[in-house]
Amino acid sequence: MLEPITADVLSLPGIAHGFFTRAGGVSGGIYQSLNCGLGSKDDRQAVLENRDRVARHLGAAPGSVVTLYQVHSDIAVTVDKPVPFESLPKADALVTRTPGVVVGALAADCAPVLFADPTARVVGAAHAGWRGAVDGILESTIAAMEGLGAARGRIRAVVGPCISQTAYEVGPEFEAALLDRDAGNARFFVRPSAGVRPHFDLPGYVESRLQRSGIGEVDRQTPCTFPGDSRFFSFRRSQKLSEPDYGRQISAIVVT
């Protein structure tokens, strides 16, 4: 059984969404069970079935889930129909106003963000790792939605499950780069004890960028993906365990 997390601010008439966990799929081994990442080394047919389960859960047809070749960019693209895997754009956000087209963001520690303007019936999904968030992927998503008729003040956005500050150790050069951009970014870094590397608050940073963008409402549904349970996939946990690959959970939204 699929067990997506949902947010009240996106529980809207004519729009369905979910921040999906690992539960309810058909993949096995390290990909168990709802791995939706076509870029993983999982069995392709299992991944396609998992994506179709997501589509059906959201009231859409099999084959209607669209994701991207994610590259930690600031590029948002508009779609009006499903895109073959072989033709996936290199980008990190999708927007649509086409009913039945499920737009999704894949993640395994990065922050997925879902967007909706319920009046214009425009939705979006963004993959926000630190680099994409810093370079402007969230703002690019909002601009692309406006290009489809959304109004900034009506847009609602929710940050989904991602790695928490407690688990997200980064290098001092990372901290220095963000402080060079804006000294105010210091509030997103802590050092748990003297002499250790800084820890970065990714969900807090993403939420802050969304708040500054001037959209209508921002919320968070951000349990940490790193802990060693079976609820979420995590790139960093897979590295710690020396696993050969990792699955990706999907966060998805659709105009019904």
Q: Please tell me what the overall shape is.
A: globular
N- to C-terminal distance: 21 Å
Unreliable stretches, pLDDT < 50, 5 or more residues?
A: none
Number of domains: 1
Q: Which structural class best describes the helix and strand composition?
A: alpha/beta
CATH superfamily: CNF1/YfiH-like putative cysteine hydrolases
Radius of gyration: 17 Å
DSSP summary: helix tally: 6
Q: Do you know the CATH topology?
A: CNF1/YfiH-like putative cysteine hydrolases
Relative strand content? 15-25%
Short description:
The chain has helices spanning 44-57, 130-135, 137-147, 172-181, 202-212, 235-240; strands spanning 15-19, 65-66, 76-78, 93-96, 102-107, 111-117, 122-128, 156-159, 189-190, 199-200, 217-220, 249-255. The protein has 256 residues and is an alpha/beta fold.
Notes on the protein architecture:
Helices cover 23% and strands 21% of the residues. By secondary structure, it is an alpha/beta fold. The chain has one domain: CNF1/YfiH-like putative cysteine hydrolases. It has a six-stranded mixed β-sheet with strand order 3-4-7-6-8-11. A four-stranded mixed β-sheet has the order 1-12-5-2. Strands 9-10 form a two-stranded antiparallel sheet. A hairpin with an 8-residue loop joins β9 and β10. It is globular, with a radius of gyration of 17 Å. The mean pLDDT is 97.
